[in-house]
Design a protein that fits this description.
The protein has about 260 residues and is of the alpha/beta class. It starts with a strand and ends with a helix. α1 packs parallel to α9. Strands 2-1-10-11-12 form a five-stranded parallel beta sheet, sandwiched between helices. The chain contains nine helices and twelve strands. The protein has helices spanning about 20-35, 50-55, 85-100, 120-125, 150-160, 190-200, 220-225, 235-240, 255-260; strands spanning about 5, 35-40, 60-65, 70-75, 100-105, 110-115, 145-150, 165-170, 180-185, 210-215, 225-230, 245.
Length: about 260
C-alpha cells in the first residue's frame, strides 16, 4: 500500500459534468481510512470548489494548488507559497492590456482579472466563487501565479510568446472544453516540486507516491513519483509519462487508480 496519492482535479477528479462520481469519493475515503494520505494536486486556487475538494479528501492535510505555486495545509492554514517575480508579472499585465486577452493574477486566497466579461464570469462559475471582478493591482498579499484564459484558437500564439523567469503550464477542463488555461509560475515551480514538498512533510519517499493526472501540467509530478497514473482521457504527454493507465474520468478511472494504490 502506498503512502500518498496525489490527485489532479480537471479531467481526473471531475469530468464533463463538473461533478465527482460517488464511487470515486468512496474509493478515496476508503484509502484515507486505511492510512493513505490524499493530496489534491491542481492548477486551481486554494478557494472555491478546489478548497472544498481538498477538505473532503484530507481536512488536516497538505494540498497542492495553482500548479505548485501554493502548497497549503488546509487544516492549519500554513502555506509554502512561491511568489511570482515582479518584472515578468509587470510584463504580462502590459501584454494583457495591449492584446485585450484575459489574464488572471492570484494570491493564495484571492484573484484579479484584467478584462471582466463573459469569459471571466464563466471561469468564476467553474471555480465555484462569486463573480466579483477586481483589478490585479488591487490584490492584497503575495502574488503567486498568473494565468491566461484563452479560446483554443488563440492558444498557440500565447504559448509561443516568451515568458522569461516563468514556467508555463497549459491545461484544459472538460467543464470548459473550448478554453485553454495557460498558467505561469516562478521558474522551477510546478506540480512536481510541490508534490516533493508534500511527500517530505509526511516523510513518505517519492518511490511510494502515486500521481494521477491527465494533462501537460501533471507531467512534472508524474515524473518525480514512483507510481504515475494516466487517465483514459489523458493527452499524449501525460499518457507517455504514465506507468499505469486507467479508464476515462467519466468512467471512474480515478477509483480504479486508488484501488491499484492499495495493492502496491
Amino acid at each position: 500500500m502506498l503512502g500518498l496519492i496525489c490527485v489532479d482535479v480537471d479531467g481526473t477528479l471531475i469530468g464533463t459534468g463538473n461533478t465527482v462520481r460517488e464511487d470515486v469519493w468512496a474509493a478515496l475515503a476508503d484509502a484515507r481510512a486505511q492510512g493513505v494520505r490524499i493530496a489534491l494536486c491542481s492548477g486551481r486556487p486554494a478557494f472555491g470548489n478546489a478548497l472544498g475538494y481538498a477538505r473532503r479528501l484530507d481536512p488536516d492535510g497538505w494540498h497542492v494548488f495553482q500548479n505548485g505555486a501554493s502548497t497549503v495545509n488546509v487544516g492549519s492554514g500554513e502555506s509554502l507559497s512561491e511568489p511570482l517575480p515582479e518584472e515578468p508579472l509587470a510584463t504580462l499585465l502590459v501584454r494583457a492590456r495591449e492584446t485585450g486577452r484575459l489574464l488572471e493574477v492570484y494570491t493564495d486566497d484571492d484573484f484579479g482579472v484584467t478584462h471582466p466579461g463573459d469569459l471571466a464570469r464563466r471561469h468564476a462559475d467553474l471555480l465555484g466563487v462569486p463573480y466579483t471582478p477586481q483589478a490585479p493591482e488591487s490584490l492584497v498579499g503575495t502574488r503567486v501565479r498568473a494565468q491566461w484564459v484563452v479560446p483554443h484558437e488563440e492558444a498557440a500564439g500565447v504559448l509561443a510568446e516568451a515568458s522569461p523567469g516563468l514556467d508555463v503550464h497549459p491545461a484544459g477542463s472538460p467543464a470548459m472544453p473550448d478554453i485553454l488555461f495557460i498558467s505561469l509560475t516562478r521558474a522551477g515551480i510546478g506540480k512536481g516540486s510541490a508534490v516533493a514538498l508534500v511527500a517530505a512533510q509526511y516523510g513518505v519517499p517519492l518511490s511510494r507516491v502515486m500521481m494521477v493526472g491527465d494533462g501537460h501540467n501533471d507531467v512534472t509530478a508524474m515524473r518525480v513519483v514512483g507510481h504515475p497514473v494516466a487517465m483514459g482521457n489523458a493527452d499524449a504527454e501525460a499518457r507517455a509519462a504514465g506507468r499505469y493507465h486507467v479508464a476515462h474520468v467519466d468512467d471512474g478511472g480515478l477509483a480504479q487508480a486508488v484501488r491499484l494504490a492499495l495493492t502496491l
